[in-house]
Amino acid sequence: MPSPAVLSPAPALAAPTGTATRPRPSLVPPIRRAGVPALAAALAAAADRWLHLVEYRPDSRWTHLLPSADAAAVLDPSLHRELAAAEVWLLSWLPGQGTPLHDHGRSAGAFAVVRGSLTERVVAPGRPGRPGRESTAELTGGSVRSFGAHYVHQVTNSAPVPAISVHVYAPRLTEMNTYSFAGDRLDRTGTEQAGVDW
Ligand SMILES: [Fe+2]
């Protein structure tokens, strides 16, 4: 079985010194949906090269937009086409930290658990007269979850140890809506700018 598409050996990424650079939109090729989970899995497999960037914050979850050049540096060039249209975030989760129910705007995405475990709650409104759907899954290290636009979930670290995950979105996140869910109703409760807090 082929190994994940990761360059090895290679040096660890340097600590961030500025803001992320983004390719010019006109130069960004359309992404293949299959490439998003592949990127998440490959970045998780290359975690040893970026784990030193991770911080933990007791007051709120830590999030970090990984510059495209840094993500490219740990990936096999065969994934650079997918990466050009995507955005990579690193997240840490102390025990008890989590998100509200949220979507990802127009973006599809995938995330991989790198350390610890995360609990994912997924909800969907019911059709008229039908109950909504709700499911919960425990995602341990190595798990990769992928989703399309309009996917609504809540992610929490319910375990007693910290967790780390890597998230890939395409197209890049612009905003995220938060929701409440009561049986069959999914009501939007707010809109947050990507990266501020989710
Ligand atoms: Fe999410």
TrEMBL record:
Q: Where is this region: Disordered?
A: 1-26
- Give binding positions for Fe cation: H102, H104, H153
Keyword annotations for this protein, in alphabetical order, are: Dioxygenase, Iron, Metal-binding, Oxidoreductase
Q: What segments bear the compositional bias annotation Low complexity? A: 1-25
Q: Give the UniProt family note.
A: Belongs to the cysteine dioxygenase family.
Among the Pfam families in the record, one is CDO_I
Source species, domain of life: Bacteria
Q: Which organism is it from?
A: Trujillonella endophytica
Protein's name in the database: Cysteine dioxygenase type I
User: What are the GO MF terms of this UniProt record?
Assistant: ferrous iron binding; oxidoreductase activity, acting on single donors with incorporation of molecular oxygen, incorporation of two atoms of oxygen
